[in-house]
Specification:
This protein is of the alpha+beta class. It folds into two domains: about 375 residues, Up-down Bundle (Outer membrane efflux proteins (OEP)), CATH 1.20.1600; about 70 residues. It is about 60% helix and about 10% strand. The protein is built from twelve helices and eight strands. The strands form three sheets. It has a four-stranded antiparallel beta sheet with strand order 1-4-6-7, with no helix packed on it. A two-stranded antiparallel sheet has the order 2-3. A hairpin with a 2-residue loop joins β2 and β3. The N and C termini lie close together (about 5 Å).
């Protein structure tokens, strides 16, 4: 396929382009700025940015750190205690004031609690693993957002070019209509219709221009650098996705259900709730403890306390006001809630996989249709150009717009298919995958060489 550049259109539509119909001017980051994105910006360099620039990723990492800290806190209950006990004190005994000082070394350890602390520690360990799964999922989701934002910029540049060419054609039409109106060759109504048509296209061009700036702002804000708007982009190499074969729907659904990080995290939360339930069931069982002290236990150690002491103690609640039963009931409800979440997540995943499966399946048919449309637009442009060169009546401008619109549709279809595959990978617990892009493209130039 051959492509006709925007610069050929500039030569043919010089009256319109003399109005200054240029591509939006953005504010690229200054060189040496520590916050600047790579220039030119490629999908590869974008995805290589640390995921910790995302507040959502930072929040998830904080949750992981909290969960790890709670493991240590839970394990400390059964750990060996070693501390110094000191006291400066006085007391009244037999109507006289006596010293009651103490300075001793204390060693203590909980010996046996029927497995309650072990169960609670196991529960916290499972919760920590769940947060880890959710953390990886959040990383992948952030990278998927980066890919979508990157694609949106390229599509906005394509759409602007389409609307810019349409406006140039509309301006030439309006300019001719103005001359004919002054010569009374067309009515006021016909001239006003041309003006109305031009203003509609002008509005669409303004919207496309704003979309160029908006998509760049979205990406800059996503990476935490709202002032670093990328001016130059590289077109991504998407062969890693375009050459993939589509398995059966049942195989894809099974793959997602087996590897989805959200499901794995919920499964670990369910295991944690089961361990927590086991710990609550033995909450009122006896707790045996060993404690020993050595040193000055009293100001009258030789008479009352001596120099050391060892205690083997047992504590068992007799009445807890229903605390145990309510805690057990709460954990059972928690387990039911998680099981319901797992079932609902599986249903949602099956629907999402089904939608993505048919999107990819249909994309192949769309690709063929768009390719034929592009071939037609290319040939029609050649035909219009030949008529123009022979000084025959032609719609050369409209054929150029049609070809640009066809190119936009092809790129949009390619990105749509790529994102569908990337979303399937995300649902399967995998990060987005792509190859290194090759050639630098300026958004003020044409992208056509990358869609042949």
């Amino acid at each position: 396929m051959q492509f006709f550049s925007l610069f050929s259109l500039k030569e043919w539509l010089s009256p319109a382009l003399s109005l200054g119909l240029t591509v939006i001017s953005v504010m690229p980051a200054q060189a040496g700025d520590p916050l600047a994105l790579p220039e030119p910006l490629s999908l590869e360099s974008l995805m290589a940015l640390p995921v910790t620039i995302s507040p959502q990723v930072q929040l998830q990492q904080a949750k992981q750190q909290q969960a790890l800290a709670l493991i240590g806190q839970q394990q400390s209950v059964n750990a060996l205690e070693l501390n110094v006990v000191g006291r400066l004190g006085w007391r009244e005994f037999a109507n006289e004031t006596q010293e009651n000082h103490q300075l001793a070394l204390h060693v203590g350890k909980q010996l046996y609690d029927f497995g309650r602390q072990n169960a609670l520690t196991e529960a916290q360990q499972q919760l920590t693993k769940a947060e880890s799964r959710f953390g990886v999922r959040q990383n992948h989701q952030f990278q998927l957002q980066l890919m979508q934002a990157f694609f949106n910029i390229i599509l906005a540049d394509y759409q602007y070019r389409v609307q810019n060419e349409s406006m140039a054609v509309a301006y030439v039409t309006l300019d001719k209509a103005k001359d004919r109106h002054e010569l009374h060759q067309i009515s006021d109504v016909a001239y006003l219709k041309r003006q109305n048509d031009y203003e509609k296209i002008l509005l669409l061009r303004s919207k496309a221009e704003n979309e160029q700036r908006r998509t760049r702002s979205v990406l800059a804000n996503l990476v935490g650098q709202p002032q670093a708007l990328s001016d130059k982009l590289t077109f991504p190499n998407l062969e890693a996705y375009s050459q993939r074969s589509l398995p059966t729907l049942e195989a894809l659904q099974q793959q997602v259900l087996s590897n989805n990080l959200q499901l794995k995290g919920l499964g670990l939360q369910r295991q944690a709730a089961l361990s927590q339930l086991q710990g609550e069931k033995v909450a009122n069982n006896p707790v045996f403890r060993l404690d020993a002290w050595g040193g000055q236990l009293s100001s009258y150690e030789k008479k009352y306390e001596g120099n050391w002491r060892v205690d083997l103690s047992m504590q068992m609640p007799l009445v807890d006001g229903g605390l145990k039963s309510s805690a057990v009931a709460k954990q059972k409800a928690q387990i039911q809630q998680i099981q319901a979440q797992i079932a609902a997540t599986k249903q949602a995943l099956r629907d999402q996989v089904s939608e993505l499966f048919f999107t990819i399946k249909l994309s192949e048919a769309e690709k063929k249709q768009l390719q034929l449309q592009a071939d037609y637009a290319d040939l029609y442009l050649d035909f219009s150009r030949a008529l123009y060169e022979n000084e025959s009546q032609t719609d050369l401008g409209d054929s150029m717009v049609q070809l640009s619109e066809s190119n936009y549709q092809m790129i949009s279809q390619q990105f749509k298919q790529t994102l569908a595959w990337a979303q399937l990978d995300f649902l399967s617990g995998q990060a987005p995958s792509f190859k290194k892009p090759a050639e630098i493209i300026n958004h003020e130039e044409n992208y056509e060489a990358h869609i042949q």
